[in-house]
Amino acid sequence: MTETTASNSHGAGHNKKPSKVGFFAGIVLFFRQMVSELKKVVTPTRSELVNYTLVVIGFVVLMMLIISGLDYVFGNGSILIFTNSPEQ
Fold it and tell me: Localized where (predicted)?
């Protein structure tokens, strides 16, 4: 494949470097893009919101139980390892 064939297969617009924009133009561009992305956001229905909330609460409770269990096991294990047992 020749160099001209390879460059033509990528399209004409891909070889251009993006032009530098000024500081304030960059800020304006950011806010335009932010507004266009916010227009794409879909508000969940009430049932979806309740479902998502219950999933998050369930996950947090599960993680609390796992961490509490591990804390109890490691706490009691360290007490057994690092304390002297009374000699009889």
Answer: Cell membrane; Membrane
